[in-house]
Amino acid sequence: MGVKGIGKLIRELAKPGVQIKKLTEYSGKKIAIDGNQMLYKFICGIRNSGTDIMNNDGIVTTHLHGLFHKLCGLLSYGIKPIVFFDGNPPPIKSKEIADRKYNKKIAQTYVNEFNAQNLLLQTVSSGNDALPIEHEHNEEEHITNKNNTEFIKNFKRCVYIKPKCIKECKEMLNLMGIPYVQSVGESDPECVAFTNNMKHNVYGVLSDDMDMLAFGARKLLTNISIQDGTVIEYDLNIILRLLNISHIQFIELCILLGTSYQSNIKGIYGKKAYNALKSNGSISNIIKLLIECPDNINNKEFLENYLEKSNEIREYYLYPIIRDPELIDINWRQIKTSLELTALFDFLKDKGFDLKLIHRKILLLLDDSFNMKQML
Q1: Domains identified in the chain and CATH numbers
Q2: Residue 1: pLDDT over 70
Q3: Closest by alpha carbon to 206, among 7, 19, 31, 23?
Q4: pTM (2 d.p.)
Q5: Mean per-residue pLDDT, 320-347
């Protein structure tokens, strides 16, 4: 979810803090990648077609194809990616996690029933037997509507990145020579910590999750297009200056708009939330005024609980549990030997990659001294 409406609000009130840039401008720069978010977005994009990418054994490998092609795209512009993976979610996100699991379960049930129905109809049709009465008028609909909006919607809702998928991604990254970091908790604050740490000199964070700004990302890169060679960059310092608020107030603005940890108060959104914060200085003062309003006499308990949760969220944004970037070494390794390249080839081939189609991308991973001809 990120932060509801914060991007639109920033573009309205702090437009100079948002720029469309060419990816060539980031050549040589280190960029922190929100790995889980990148995988999720790619899988959902592929599922718009009504299916997943699979290898010859029918095992889903969409996550590997997505990560490989996206990272090679970045490398083609001279960008040095560091991939960050989620650890355990924080306790304050428990309700959101529970809601997601419930919705995924419903979506998965729909997908399973849909696929079972298709299998039944295809089996009956291939045997030239008469369809059961209840299916007679729906055969064409159920066999061909994997492009049906309702199916696609539910198919995308039940995306779940399993630990096995992350393990395979890490294995592939090791073979590609691209560094990754396993976060203790959510990867968002870990990404940000690296951008604010002098040791690693990471330029910014690549993610469509806007609460990276609440965590303090100086530069947030969103809506990347490898094909067009563009990305949208948010500059937090410029944004705060133009909004004329502190970073803590920006965090509270995000909380008012609604985050993955708590929804917004009904009627407080967009510019209303910003103006309320500017006029009153803090969420605490806003809630105090709302409680004092006679119309909210029946909402006092809700507002008090909202304020308590808001304080927890603010503290989490300010002081998340992360690994110390100073204690982590980050290194890129280009492929130098035929043994290393063969290992990558074998892995990709097993995962359903067409090696002829990715030949040019493989070259991006090779050391300048490596002679590709010896492998051909």
Answers
A1: 1-95+157-354 (3.40.50.1010), 96-156 (no CATH)
A2: no
A3: 31
A4: 0.88
A5: 93
